[in-house]
Design brief:
This protein is α+β, with helices and mostly antiparallel strands. It contains twelve helices and 16 strands. Strand 9 and strand 10 form a beta hairpin.
Length: 414
Amino acid sequence: MSIVSLPGLKDLIDNISRERNLPRHAVQAALREALLKGYERYRRAQRLDRFHFDEDYFNNFEVDLDVEEEGFRVLATKIIVEEVSNPDHQISLQEVQEVATEATLGDSVVLDVTPDQREFGRMAAIQTKQVLSQKLRDQQRQIIQEEFEDLEGTVLQARVLRFERQSVILAVNSGFNQPEVEAELLSREQLPNDNYRINATFKVFLKKVREGPHRGPQLIVSRAAAGLVVYLFANEVPEIEDEVVRIVAVAREANPPSRHVGPRTKIAVDTLERDVDPVGACIGARGSRIQVVVNELRGEKIDVIRWSPDPATYIANALSPARVDEVRLVNTDARQAHVLVAEDQLSLAIGKEGQNVRLAARLTGWKIDIKDVAKYDYAAEYAKIQAQQEAQEEYEEPESEESEEMETLPVGDV
């Protein structure tokens, strides 16, 4: 079989593999595709008589790369026919039977169609070089996409590279000795207290890997995701890592609706160990553990509260640091609760611009109404709740009666 010589092929593959941090098989695949494109260019240049090559015309061609002999061959798969109408895709039965008597019509054979080295030409070589560069970039993008898709939902170390519009472009890597890859930190995913100066380092949460229209895979990272808080606590609290303490729920407001309110997080923790205080484990001696998390989040306020299977206790804990006198579960189906507090605890329970009660509601999944215990009229509130429930029942009853009536109607009456 003929071969087009490529001196230094083995070293070329090794060098590209090392420089671009690609496996050798990925470099070889890119090189085979590039050489096939070069062969296409060579064939098209041969047919200047306006012969039309369809987009799929060369699908039956492939390149066999011989690293040991440092060269390549072009192979074509052809169908055996009685009469040849397209010599690139077909071969006559008579011609094949001269070397393989058992061949029959409809079979396929693979033939060496490698052009002469001198004929392959300079233009084809230039095309090969251009395509190789593109294919190598494609291989890198594909590997990056596969590599980082496995890391979605994890935390990466990032370094600020530059700014594009309101986004911050960061450099991240997937592990030790891996090349850096660009990631985008959108405006809504940034923290108001962060100082995004060039080369500043941050921990970021990898939210999504998506295929970009032009630049290949795009890594979307976040400093505002609740997952970042979970990671930081798990990294700082051995009891969470050892699964002695578990994080049950997190409610985070990293970008409050008003600039007068700072970022805040509530995190609910629990344990099955009787001798372990889950809240104390997360806070640490003299607040040492939680302070590390607060520092990483640039001073964000964090409330660690004890989870409880009892909704009233859980809601009371969630409104920390306010002291709660009583929690009334006024509608368990709709998950509505009245929380009664002393007058001096009202503003603390509600929080600045409602942030504390808003986060407590998100953390527990209950709709929470804060009430002044001194002004709370139990009888009036009870009557109001009863009236709401009766109204709801009356609203639902006609629907059920109507549906039952419709079901019992004879077919002819419908």
